[in-house]
Amino acid sequence: MLSLSSVVTRYGAVHALNGVDIAVPEGTLTAVLGANGAGKTTLLRTISGLVAPAAGSISFDGTEIAGLPADRVARMGLGHVPEHGGVIRELTVRENLRLGGLWRRNLAFDEVLALFPPLAGKLGRQASTLSGGERQMLAIGRALMARPRVLLLDEPSLGLAPLVTAAIMRVLRDLRDRTGLTVLLVEQNARSALSVAERAYVLALGEVALAGSAESISAEALHEAYLGVNR
Ligand SMILES: Nc1ncnc2c1ncn2[C@@H]1O[C@H](COP(=O)(O)OP(=O)(O)OP(=O)(O)O)[C@@H](O)[C@H]1O
């Protein structure tokens, strides 16, 4: 459904992505792991049109989307939850959710609240008063309001306690299982991501250092790929 081929993204002289090939099959949860600076955020920003790749191809449902503006990519059905969620703290939970579905007639309000019960009782609360976990739920909920076909998630576990992270991962798994949503999950928290993903890629210095089914990626191989051993 979504596939990247030989994608290169540069910031000036820095090659943040250096010829990346990644395939995200429809209805699956694919994880991209890697250390700080490996290129994970750049990968999602390149897919969603926030930065244009210098080379390579990104195909979404057979359409070439590399370099298209972010609003067009979003309307095609790619929802992006940025690092730290991008929730607007001054707005209420309800207002944040409404913003996510602004250009959709058929809002997914009740479905989103059913997925994240803690938000249902706090619709009138300012987002700044939420806990870290609730804010991440709101960020994911806001992206779901636009009824995306693919959800791109940038480190949803960042700064969250293990139990809260586990709850978020369960929601992602349920979404995939019940609605067939396709998810590309970028994480430093390899253990959490591998517990719900079918396939995983490990990025190191802008390149895919390791790829395979989630079960096939051993702790040792992960460690080596993170540390750049044998490179
Ligand atoms: N706007 C920018 N200008 C210049 N260099 C950048 C910019 N954004 C990222 N980089 C560099 O590109 C490389 C990849 O960064 P990126 O943020 O994609 O990695 P990451 O894996 O998401 O790391 P993190 O987990 O810290 O967010 C790093 O070397 C980073 O310093």
Question: Which terms would index this structure?
Answer:
ABC_transporter-like_CS, alpha/beta, 27% strand, single chain, amino-acid transport, binds adenosine-5'-triphosphate, Rossmann fold, six-stranded mixed sheet
Description:
The protein is of the alpha/beta class and 231 residues long. It folds into 2 domains: 2-77 and 149-227, 3-Layer(aba) Sandwich (Rossmann fold), CATH 3.40.50.300; 87-147, no CATH class. It contains 9 helices and 10 strands. A 6-stranded mixed β-sheet has the order 6-7-8-3-9-10, with helices on both faces. Strands 2-1-4-5 form a 4-stranded antiparallel β-sheet, covered by helices on one side. Helix 3 runs parallel beside helix 6. The longest helix has 18 residues, at 162-179. The radius of gyration is 17 Å and the shape is globular. The mean pLDDT is 92. InterPro entries: AAA+_ATPase, ABC_transporter-like_ATP-bd, ABC_transporter-like_CS, BCAA_Transport_ATP-bd_LivF, P-loop_NTPase. Residues 2-230 form the ABC transporter domain. Keywords: Amino-acid transport, ATP-binding, Nucleotide-binding, Transport.
Q: How can the largest sheet be summarized? A: 6 strands, mixed
Strand adjacency order, main sheet: 6-7-8-3-9-10
Quaternary assembly: single chain
Range of strand content: 25-35%
Kindly give the count of domains: 2
- CATH secondary-structure class of the largest domain: Alpha Beta
